[in-house]
């Protein structure tokens, strides 16, 4: 009934301003028969005539003159609400994303979201910080790190280095320190993978194949980890997409399956659902899902 009151009041105000049902309908951008039906429905609802139809012009009745100010206020409020709704749709959805997302990946995600009338604003952060940003409401949603078995998106991990490996799989036992005076090769874990469901698996494998504790090291940043790999025979734990971006040779890890898992955390369930469904493929590409 509220919608009928608004559309009826809009037709009523337009006809009263022009003094003609035909001109008023044109002003309201509706056909003249529709304007007449809406005004008639409004009159039935209010219980009195708004216009004197005995004259050629659309002349207000005394009741119609009394009701016109209220009708104008209702139309004004409806217009203001529609305007506010359009502005609200344009308000960015602040999204915390992994530091590993590239500028190109984020730009492509942003472009695809805009095509769906979703406007994103990104904040790059580590896995622990992203969940905290949602909790403190500094962002509306975050791409969170979860075990691969629980993830909406999964990204396989392997080892990458500057030297082409002799096979398609790298076994950690081949990194055992020998009697050489050269420093033992290390596996660098970047901050995005410094989470229990990934880090602990690598450490357990390290111990089971007899590597030294220092041969698996968590780096302060991806940049620092990549720099260490460029300058040595060390290896970086990363996705195949990251290895391509860094110009490194990537191989899977023997004896273990490692993968990043990602889900969405949000203050509002609607935000999480929108990201998981409408932007699922675009987010996956940004995370390195191929």
TrEMBL record:
SUPFAM superfamilies: Winged helix' DNA-binding domain. Residues 10-61 form the HTH lysR-type domain. InterPro entries: LysR_HTH_N (IPR000847), WH-like_DNA-bd_sf (IPR036388), WH_DNA-bd_sf (IPR036390). Pfam families: HTH_1. Gene3D superfamilies: Winged helix-like DNA-binding domain superfamily/Winged helix DNA-binding domain (1.10.10.10). One of its GO terms (molecular function) is DNA-binding transcription factor activity. The keyword Transcription regulation applies. It comes from the Bacteria. Keywords: DNA-binding, Transcription, Transcription regulation. Belongs to the LysR transcriptional regulatory family. This is DNA-binding transcriptional LysR family regulator.
């Amino acid at each position: 009934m509220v919608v009928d009151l608004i559309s009826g009041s809009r037709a009523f105000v337009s006809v009263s301003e022009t003094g003609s049902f035909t001109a008023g309908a044109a002003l309201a951008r509706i056909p003249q028969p529709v304007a007449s039906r809406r005004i008639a429905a409004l009159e039935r609802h209010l219980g009195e005539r708004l216009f004197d139809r005995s004259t050629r012009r659309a002349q207000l009745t005394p009741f119609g003159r009394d009701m016109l100010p209220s009708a104008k206020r209702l139309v004004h409020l409806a217009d203001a609400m529609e305007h506010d709704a359009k502005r609200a749709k344009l308000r960015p959805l602040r999204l915390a994303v992994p530091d590993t997302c590239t500028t190109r990946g984020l730009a492509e995600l942003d472009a695809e979201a805009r095509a769906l009338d979703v406007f994103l604003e990104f904040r790059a952060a580590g896995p622990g910080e992203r969940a905290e940003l949602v909790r403190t409401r500094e962002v509306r949603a975050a791409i969170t790190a979860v075990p691969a078995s629980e993830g909406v998106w999964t990204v396989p991990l392997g080892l990458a280095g500057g030297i082409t490996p002799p096979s398609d799989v790298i076994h950690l036992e081949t990194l055992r320190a020998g009697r050489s005076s050269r420093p033992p090769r290390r596996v660098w874990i970047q901050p995005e993978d410094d989470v229990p469901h990934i880090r602990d698996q690598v450490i357990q494998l390290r111990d089971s194949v007899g590597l030294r504790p220092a041969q698996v090291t968590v780096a302060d940043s991806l940049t620092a980890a990549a720099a260490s790999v460029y300058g040595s025979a060390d290896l970086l734990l990363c996705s195949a997409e990251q290895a391509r971006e860094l110009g490194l040779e990537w191989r899977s890890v023997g004896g273990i399956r490692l993968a990043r898992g990602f889900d969405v955390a949000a203050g509002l369930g609607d935000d999480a659902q929108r990201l998981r469904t409408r932007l699922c493929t675009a987010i996956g590409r940004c995370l390195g899902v191929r």
